[in-house]
């Protein structure tokens, strides 16, 4: 109340532009602006010099000139009136330059120029972000809320200025994740996803069992090589992301969201993290196949591994029932009975002599706190105590039924013997690839979702654009060879997601590829937050 | 009562692509006042509130809420207001208490105080018995209360309520009005509504907006008393103001039609709108004159 009492009696004082106050801060911002402007001019000059050479390379020169013009324009804009937007754009551009300097070797004319650009963009990025921090701090100093966190400051200095507003991102991401888990359709999606992946895994194993089959590990075939990985990956991304932003527009919840102190970028990043969380959750189920392969290499019948799967499956069933029916008691008892029946069946018909007791005791112990959290967070309509009790009961029941057999999962997983045991390195890099490309796809999907409130349209756009990034592989084949311009070919080769996954599935983690995926994510989310700013009122 | 302006609107204007929704309006709300914001549908009420809450940027002009400028410091303004939106859109898959906690965290309520603030909001809106239910399973009256609890949860000094009683049954309307009255004891409230009875019950000051301009800005009593000293109902005063504005608009549009044939079409958006805009311009000037007289 007291803050308000200052009142608007002297409201004229508030109408001053942000550039007017605080001499020292604006001076440092102006230094940055001049720096950006000068270096932009220098890049333009370099581009023009390239153009005038006898062996002129128009694409390179055009790139440099356009790039330099952008920089100098931005520098002028900041010099004239520093704003959150221009500064954060400059920060992003500097980051983009840094990435470009890292990725593309040939564009810069010589190694010396490339290194200069590299160092220069790093310096500009840091100084722009520093200026931005000053700027935002001054704007917010009355509240002192935004950047009093040291971690945020470091995160901010480290990169894209847009990422500064991370305060609310966590709660938005968590809410978004819960949104997925509360929609019954998510469980159907999860189930169908696992059916498809299970089929792919089955095909891979059967294929490799053929005597004439090429040599290779099943998980490599699962992730990389053949085409079967892609339709589902692209489709599932389109499905998960199509309503992320559009839903807020349709349900009009965008208005209460953006009339509290939440920045558009926080909303977009939160949505991104939530969708990514669900996407990762989809993939977690497939780790079962790795466990089965390891178990197989140890001479354990894969059927017993299914016990584990059943356990997880029934916990999911319980959640589904309780969310779907909103009757916690009923679904809890029903699932408890089903778990017990399934447990007995698994023990009876699974191969004997295999003991999963320790595994399950491990799981049982971890399940109780997990269940407590889930009970509170996922099922708000429940009487929380009951939910926690029931979830804990299910975990313990699973443990009790299956504790007849004991085997140490950790020993299974990390035992070094076993000729056919999958090498965990490539498997993990395969997952990294699936999730990394998934993250880039999700960012793309969020961008499209923020551009249109038509779900079908954004779904289709996401799918087509993602699929194009894979079809590129075919376009570049010597037999097809659609693209003849050499620099376009070069660019396309860098944007070929198919080869990315091929590398990842073989345990090759290329930082250039990771950087490019990161850049796609940053640019898409940036575009999405701008789109939200523009379209929110429509 | 403090004499400080908590909301100060100065020449606020909003152009949608080819419609002038709000035309250079100015008014102010003093601390502790409960101001009714009246007008027929499409008058520009919601657009004005959206600008005051920094959801839409104004085309020109500015407003200050709690001393912060809407165009310069949106974050500062947003921190000081509680805003109940026109459609009261809520996340339906969340529980009531959970939703309020989520909103409290977004509104910057410190972690330690969050539980207490949410508890107080639940109690003041009488939501304690439904705290664990999903928002999507609640009746409209309860949802409206959840919306009210959300506007109150961070204890903002300024409340901006956009048609809080629309679509409720009579019992619920009475409840929500009682709630607003209760809240108004401690806060400054700007209340947009269609119900004149609501204004008479709750508000001590009225701003009437029509065709994007302010046609009256006065206390309820003064407005009802009229120039000749007789007391009229707020309803008849309202209808008369609206009719007057419409008549002026009609006259001016006739004038504009004639003028346009000399000057040519000003706006590519079409003759209708073009005429309309000029009407609004002149109506704005007229009423700003009125305003000075009444003050």
How many strands appear in the DSSP assignment of chain B? Answer: 10
What is the percentage of strand-forming residues of chain A? under 5%
The CATH architecture of chain B comes to 3-Layer(aba) Sandwich
Number of helices of chain B: 10
What is the number of beta strands of chain A? 0
Shape field of chain B: globular
**Tally of domains of chain B:** 1
Largest interface: A-B, 49 and 53 residues
Strand content of chain B: 15-25%
Helix and strand element order of chain B: EEEHEEHEHHHEHEHEEHHH
**Could you say which overall geometry of chain A the principal axes of the C-alpha atoms support?**
globular
Structural class of chain B: alpha/beta
CATH H-tier superfamily of chain B: P-loop containing nucleotide triphosphate hydrolases
Description:
With 538 residues, chain A is an all-alpha fold. Chain A has three domains: 17-167, no CATH class; 303-422, no CATH class; 425-535, no CATH class. Chain A contains 24 helices and no strands. In chain A, helix 4 runs antiparallel to helix 24 (511-535). The radius of gyration of chain A is 27 Å and the shape is globular. Mean pLDDT of chain A is 69; it is low at 1-24, 139-165, 349-373, 380-385 and 399-419. By secondary structure, chain B is α/β, with parallel strands linked by helices. Chain B has a single domain (5-294), classed as P-loop containing nucleotide triphosphate hydrolases (Rossmann fold, 3-Layer(aba) Sandwich). Helix content of chain B is 46%, strand content 22%. Chain B is built from ten helices and ten strands. Chain B has helices spanning 45-52, 74-80, 96-106, 111-124, 140-152, 170-184, 196-202, 220-225, 234-263, 271-294, and strands at 5-16, 19-30, 34-38, 60-65, 68-69, 81-84, 158-162, 188-193, 205-210, 213-219. In chain B, the strands form two sheets. In chain B, strands 6-7-8-3-9-10 form a six-stranded mixed sheet, sandwiched between helices. In chain B, strands 2-1-4-5 form a four-stranded antiparallel sheet, with helices on both faces. In chain B, strand 7 (158-162), helix 6 (170-184) and strand 8 (188-193) form a beta-alpha-beta unit. In chain B, helix 3 packs across helix 4 (111-124), helix 4 crosses helix 5 (140-152) and helix 9 (234-263) crosses helix 10 (271-294). Chain B is globular. Classes of the chains: A mainly alpha (538), B alpha/beta (295). The interface between A and B is large, with 49 and 53 residues.
């Amino acid at each position: 109340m007291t803050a308000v009492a200052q009142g608007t009696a002297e409201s004229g004082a508030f109408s001053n532009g942000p550039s007017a106050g605080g001499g020292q801060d604006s001076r440092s911002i102006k230094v940055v602006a001049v720096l950006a402007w000068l270096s932009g001019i220098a890049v333009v000059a370099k581009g023009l010099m390239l153009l005038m050479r006898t062996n002129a390379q128009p694409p390179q020169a055009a790139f440099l000139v356009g790039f330099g013009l952008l920089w100098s324009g931005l520098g002028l804009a900041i010099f004239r009136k520093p704003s959150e937007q221009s500064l954060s754009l400059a920060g992003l551009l500097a980051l983009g330059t840094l990435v470009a300097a890292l990725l593309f070797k040939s564009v810069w004319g010589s190694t010396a120029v490339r290194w200069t650009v590299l160092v220069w963009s790093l310096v500009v990025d840091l100084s722009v972000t520093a200026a931005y921090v000053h700027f935002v701090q001054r704007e917010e100093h009355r509240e002192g809320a935004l950047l009093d966190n040291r971690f945020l400051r470091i995160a901010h200095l480290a990169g894209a200025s847009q990422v500064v507003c991370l305060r609310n991102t966590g709660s938005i991401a968590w809410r978004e994740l819960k949104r997925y888990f509360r929609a019954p359709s998510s469980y159907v999606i999860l189930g169908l996803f696992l059916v498809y992946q299970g089929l792919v895994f089955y095909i891979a194993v059967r294929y490799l069992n053929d005597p004439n089959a090429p040599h290779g590990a099943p998980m490599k075939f699962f992730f990389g090589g053949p085409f079967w990985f892609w339709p589902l990956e692209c489709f599932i991304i389109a499905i998960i992301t199509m309503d992320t932003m559009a839903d807020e527009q349709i349900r009009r919840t965008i208005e209460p969201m953006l009339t509290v102190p939440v920045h558009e970028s926080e909303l977009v990043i939160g949505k991104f993290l939530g969708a990514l969380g669900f996407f990762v959750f989809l993939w977690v189920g497939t780790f079962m196949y790795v466990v089965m392969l390891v178990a197989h290499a140890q001479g354990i019948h894969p059927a017993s591994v299914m016990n584990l799967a059943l356990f997880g499956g029934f916990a999911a069933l319980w959640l589904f029932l309780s969310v779907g029916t909103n009757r916690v008691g009923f679904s809890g008892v029903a699932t408890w009975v089903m778990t017990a029946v399934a447990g007995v069946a698994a023990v009876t018909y699974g191969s004997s002599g295999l003991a999963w007791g320790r595994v399950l005791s491990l799981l049982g112990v971890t399940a109780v706190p997990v269940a407590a959290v889930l009970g509170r967070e996922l099922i708000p309509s429940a009487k929380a105590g009951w939910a926690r009790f029931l979830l804990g009961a299910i975990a313990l029941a699973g443990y009790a039924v299956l504790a007849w057999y004991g085997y140490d999962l950790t020993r299974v997983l990390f035992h070094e013997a076993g000729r056919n045991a999958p090498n965990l390195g490539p498997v993990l890099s395969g997952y990294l690839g699936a999730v990394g490309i998934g993250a880039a796809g999700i960012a793309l999907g969020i961008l499209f979702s923020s551009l249109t409130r038509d779900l079908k349209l954004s779904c289709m756009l996401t799918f087509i654009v993602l699929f194009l990034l894979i079809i590129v592989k075919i376009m570049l084949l010597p037999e097809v060879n659609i693209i003849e311009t050499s620099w376009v070919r070069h660019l396309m080769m860098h944007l070929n997601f198919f080869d990315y996954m091929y590398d990842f599935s073989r345990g090759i983690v290329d930082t250039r590829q990771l950087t490019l995926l990161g850049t796609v994510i940053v640019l898409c989310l940036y575009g999405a937050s701008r789109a939200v700013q523009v379209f929110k009122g429509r | 009562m403090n004499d400080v302006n908590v909301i100060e609107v100065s020449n606020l204007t909003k152009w949608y692509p080819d419609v002038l929704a709000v035309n250079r309006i100015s008014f102010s709300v003093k601390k502790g006042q409960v101001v009714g914001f009246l007008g027929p549908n499409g008058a520009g009420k919601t657009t004005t509130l959206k600008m005051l809450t920094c959801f839409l940027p104004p085309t020109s002009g500015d407003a200050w809420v709690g001393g912060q400028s809407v165009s310069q410091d949106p974050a500062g303004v947003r921190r000081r207001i509680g805003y109940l939106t026109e459609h009261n859109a809520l996340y339906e898959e969340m529980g009531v208490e959970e939703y309020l906690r989520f909103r409290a965290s977004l509104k910057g309520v410190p972690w330690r105080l969050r539980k207490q603030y949410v508890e107080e909001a639940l109690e003041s809106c009488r939501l304690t018995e439904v705290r664990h239910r999903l928002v999507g399973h609640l009746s409209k009256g309860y949802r409206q209360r959840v919306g009210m609890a959300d506007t109150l949860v961070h204890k903002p000094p300024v409340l901006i309520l956009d048609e809080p009683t629309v679509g409720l049954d009579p019992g619920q309307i009475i409840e929500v009005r009682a709630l607003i009255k209760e809240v108004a004891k401690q806060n400054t409230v700007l209340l947009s509504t269609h119900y004149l009875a609501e204004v008479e019950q709750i508000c001590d000051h009225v701003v009437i907006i029509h065709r994007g301009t302010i046609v009256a800005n006065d206390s309820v009593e003064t407005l009802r008393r009229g120039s000749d000293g007789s007391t009229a109902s707020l309803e008849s005063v309202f209808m008369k103001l609206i009719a007057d504005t419409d008549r002026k608009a009609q006259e001016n549009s006739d004038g504009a039609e004639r003028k346009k044939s000399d000057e040519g079409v000003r706006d590519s958006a079409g003759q209708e709108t073009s005429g309309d805009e000029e009407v609004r311009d002149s109506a704005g000037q007229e009423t700003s004159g009125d305003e000075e007289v009444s003050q």
